[in-house]
Amino acid sequence: MQIGINQYRIPQNSKIDLTDIPTQDRNSPPKRVIRDEMVPQLRPQLRDWQEKLYAENKQSLLIVLQAMDAGGKDGLIKHVMASVNPQGVHVASFKQPSLEELDRDYLWRINRALPRRGEIGIFNRSHYEDVIITRVHNLIPNENFPAKLVDKDIWKKRFRQICDYERYLCENGYQVVKIFLHISKEEQRQRLLDRLNEPDKLWKFSSSDIKEREHWEEYQKVLSEMISATSTEHAPWYVLPADKKWWGRFRTMQILIHHLEMMDPKYPKPSEEFMKNLDYWRKLLDG
Amino acid sequence: MQIGINQYRIPQNSKIDLTDIPTQDRNSPPKRVIRDEMVPQLRPQLRDWQEKLYAENKQSLLIVLQAMDAGGKDGLIKHVMASVNPQGVHVASFKQPSLEELDRDYLWRINRALPRRGEIGIFNRSHYEDVIITRVHNLIPNENFPAKLVDKDIWKKRFRQICDYERYLCENGYQVVKIFLHISKEEQRQRLLDRLNEPDKLWKFSSSDIKEREHWEEYQKVLSEMISATSTEHAPWYVLPADKKWWGRFRTMQILIHHLEMMDPKYPKPSEEFMKNLDYWRKLLDG
Q1: Residue pLDDT, tens place only, B227-251
Q2: Half-sphere exposure in the Cβ direction for A52 (13 Å, CA)
Q3: For B240, phi and psi rounded to 5 degrees?
Q4: Predicted ipTM > 0.90
Q5: Top-level CATH class of B6-286?
Q6: Which of B74, B78, B90, B252 to substitute to test the interface with A, most A CBs within 10 Å?
Q7: Phi-psi bin for B123: left (phi > 0), alpha (psi -120 to 50), beta?
Q8: B209 touches chain A (CB under 8 A)
Q9: Which of A83, A192, A203 sits opposite B268 (nearest CB)?
Q10: Which among A63, A272, B11, B148 is placed 20 to 30 Å from A156, CA to CA?
Q11: C-alpha distance from B132 to closest chain A C-alpha (Å)
């Protein structure tokens, strides 16, 4: 049982507005307690579940990570997945689509990046970019896309398509969990300034991040609508207060463990025939 | 400087016989010192190098791992790569080739699994299986392969093809490092018995492992010839004594750090123009 995460889960058919949702939890324990006591308790749990998932080799856990720029996705992946066996983790980062990708439908590259059975997959950005930045900048569709398919309902259609796609995944052994790291505009400002001021972080800075900031309010609107429309029973969104990085990471670990508990992977049971032969194999090795 | 690893590196054009090479180092420090003192010193080094490699985004480090069954590849990946950012690590496990893979040349699936620039790639088994198990059991080639291309020189040709391929990779930004975890037949016996005797390890046991043991001597011969023929300046083999798991893992970390030092990745330097604009961006954020 992971306590306290349900408050972040967006129920199906609800209508949220991100500007109403806090980017900090007022009554969270202090950083020291989280970092030195609570996170270390979760690490072995996460590791054990992942080993079982891998051994069972039947289901996959797919984590979709979205956030505004500098929202903390990269750092979260690094910290949450530390000490989990990298052999069972597959991280896919979706940047600007390549020409080859633009030449297909928007879910094509997503599908190619799915984790295998037994793996935990992490999408650093995802198909949701195609209803976020694509929408804010009206980038849809690429020039080869049939104009007659572009109507004022295109975003609603995409929401439905995404829900359909994720349901298909769930019906085929994937548990899809979507996490939005929710930060304030002020926190983003601070983090971008940090990147400018620390030489070893400078490479992370992109001037486009600042240009995108001008559209902050529009992004929040588009994101609110998207999360409302695509949080489902089978593939829920969690909106995590992430101004404090360590808090978002801790809550994410809880969420992963919660869903792994629900998936309940088990070490494979050897067949009866195999068990009958056990002594035979032992003797062969002893001989 | 990583001390002591050069003794395991097989020089180009040398002729080794694995049966002459010990599977344990007599004068290694005790496990406790390695585990509690020496490995913890290496972890932050490995992490820092990997961050630079990722930030630089120009070169890749490709680790090829081979061993006899139960040689410790999976455990090594888990322990060595713990606390390295999984976003920059790509593990590819090569099992029995699929029908789709058999329908192509043997390097086709290898090439598809290469890490991206900036990543550390780990091959759990590799193209070398096509000159090991394929050779011991004379599995070459699949039925569609033109018979006239199969002659008594096929293994020599493959050695040359592999060296050519790896040189091509090196000339295109990959550092290829190959590690053979060297265990004794007795150690393998013990590990397979452990799998049979511990319920949570039973799923790792495969009766084919025992059947393959009958070919132990032939495997050692084929492996010796392969390592001799394919250890090159640009893509060297290291033969690590691996009866003690913790020792092989420690030495592997040293080897990775050594090669990362040689690659010497650097945080990208921003352009002069970018630096001129730095104050402009700061002001925009402050405003």
Answers
A1: 999 999 999 999 999 999 999 999 9
A2: 16
A3: -105, 130
A4: no
A5: alpha beta
A6: B78
A7: beta
A8: no
A9: A203
A10: A63
A11: 23
